[in-house]
Specification:
Blueprint lengths: L4 E5 L3 H14 L3 E5 L2 H6 L7 E5 L7 H11 L5 E5 L4 H9 L4 E4 L4 H31 L10 H13 L6 E4 L6 H10 L8 E5 L5 H9 L16 H4 L4 E5 L6 H13 L1 E2 L8 E2 L3 E6 L3 H6 L5 H7 L2 E4 L8 H18 L4 E2 L1 H9 L5 H15 L4 E2 L6 H4 L22 H15 L4 H8 L3 H10 L5
Parallel strand pairs: 1-2, 1-3, 3-4, 4-5, 6-11, 6-12, 7-8, 8-11, 13-14
Antiparallel strand pairs: 9-10
Length: 456
């Protein structure tokens, strides 16, 4: 903010010079002074960060200058100054978008605070706009990394449904990118400028989820010290994304069904009916139809939320994406770490053959770890987690390439090490499960892994 450029507009030379001196010498900003609104408007091309604008001036008035400046630069903060002290003028200026209003003689300490607050608010607003642009860029179809035919079909479905209000259910295993697809639906739709509100139904206790979704009134329950706006209200005219909807209990499912049908609800403890225009996108990693058969999920709600189902295939079923994604993550994390890296042939083979039970999320974490672990220019199998390192090891003891002694006896330590590596491979690196199958305590397994230099 210290280098912020402030325009000072006042037809009184004494006031203009006083303001310029204070803004530059005392407060440390850059400043340019103008004697008329016309001169200020002509100089807006140089993109000032804030304008101090007198209201009563010869020629174009301060109010008219404000109106024109806001047309040209809607996010430009303008603080109005006036010797009149008229409440009507102050209200009109604020209605036109002025950040603040000060009467002359000016209270300089308060003016400094107002300037710094306005500049900070503009900076935050710009950062939010940049973040939104980056998110929208990332979820454009051409920027989602995939070459497989299976994912192209997913993109085709997203393209078909994006501008419809039909409820969408995105299904797939954990880590396949269900939220990314849901964001793509929203940010490629007509609702992209409205909120995209995420609710993870699995991470919120059942007794609190209703309040989270629909809000509550003050005093509705113990601890409700003030009114709270729910996520459906926050998502008005946008999209609400209910992640892991299969975790929702049956009682709340009934209320959600009614909200979907009527687009109306009441806050917990409230009587007022609230109307919210939202687009519903849900996601689950469960077999939701089996949940319906087992009476754990309402059939009528299932038919409502699954009007347009999209299935995101697991990574093992789209092998052509594995190396493309791996190279993408390698470039991403390499740049962040200041490294230029490549994969060894053995590492690429390992990445391609591994079944990826954690899907894209697991692959991303593996590549990030590899970038951290490697000391050279190449990521090798040794830089990858033990679950991948042991994947190529054959499962049967008879096929394990032991180094035998001169007597033909397999070294016991080698047998132990290979058994541990194989157990970790079979269990996908799950320490607790591997220890159980090896009939060892977890502490013992950790100790042996350290002994044999087996890293996770």
């Amino acid at each position: 903010m210290a280098n912020s450029l402030i325009y000072i507009v006042d037809d009184e030379e004494t006031i203009r010079k006083l303001l310029e001196h204070t803004v530059t010498k005392r407060w440390g900003f850059e400043a340019r002074a103008f004697a008329s609104g016309e001169a200020c408007l002509d100089a807006l091309i140089d993109d000032p960060d804030l304008v101090l604008l007198d209201i009563m001036m010869e020629g174009i008035s301060g109010v008219d200058t404000l109106r024109e400046a806001r047309k040209r630069k809607p996010d430009l903060p303008v603080i109005m100054l006036s010797a009149q002290g008229s409440m009507e003028v102050a209200i009109e200026s604020l209605k036109l978008g002025a950040s603040d209003y000060f009467s002359k003689p000016i209270d300089f300490p308060k003016l400094e605070i107002a300037i710094r607050n306005a500049l900070q608010l503009r900076q935050v607003s710009r950062e939010m706009s940049q973040l939104k642009e980056r998110i929208q860029h990332d979820v454009q179809f051409e920027n989602i990394v995939s070459t497989s035919g299976e994912m192209q079909e997913v993109f085709r479905l997203v393209s078909k449904v994006k501008n419809s209000d039909i409820p969408v259910l995105v299904m797939g295993e954990s880590g396949t990118g269900k939220e990314l697809i849901s964001r793509a639906i929203h940010f490629n739709s007509d609702r992209k400028d409205a909120p995209f509100v995420v609710v993870n139904c699995a991470s919120i206790p059942h007794e609190l989820l209703e309040s989270e979704l629909f809000g509550h009134e003050k005093g509705a329950f113990t601890g409700a010290y003030q009114r709270r706006i729910g996520r459906f209200e926050q998502a008005h005219q946008g999209t609400i994304f209910l992640d892991e909807i299969g975790e929702m209990d049956l009682a709340l499912q009934a209320k959600l069904l009614r909200v979907i049908q009527t687009k109306e609800f009441q806050r917990v403890g409230g009587n007022d009916t609230i109307i919210s225009d939202v687009r519903l996108v849900s996601a689950t990693n469960r077999d939701i139809r089996e949940e319906v058969r087992q009476k754990r999920f309402r059939e009528d709600l299932y038919f409502r939320i699954a009007a347009f189902p999209i299935v995101v295939p697991p990574l093992r079923q789209r092998k052509s994406d594995i190396l493309v994604l791996a190279e993408h993550f390698l470039k991403l994390f390499g740049q962040a770490s200041g490294k230029t890296l490549r994969f060894s042939r053995e590492a690429l083979r390992l990445l391609y053959d591994y079944p990826w039970p954690g899907n894209v999320r697991e692959l991303e974490n593996v590549i990030q770890r590899g970038v951290v672990m490697t000391d050279g220019k190449e990521i090798t199998p040794g830089d990858l987690p033990v679950a991948l390192q042991t994947f190529l090891a054959p499962a049967s003891a008879s096929s394990i390439p032991f180094v035998e002694s001169e007597t033909g006896v397999v070294p016991l330590e080698r047998v132990k090490e290979t058994a541990i590596r194989n157990a970790l491979k079979v269990t996908g690196g799950n320490i607790a499960e591997a220890a159980l199958r090896l009939k060892l305590g977890r502490a013992t397994l950790y100790r042996l892994m350290k002994k044999y230099k087996i890293e996770m």
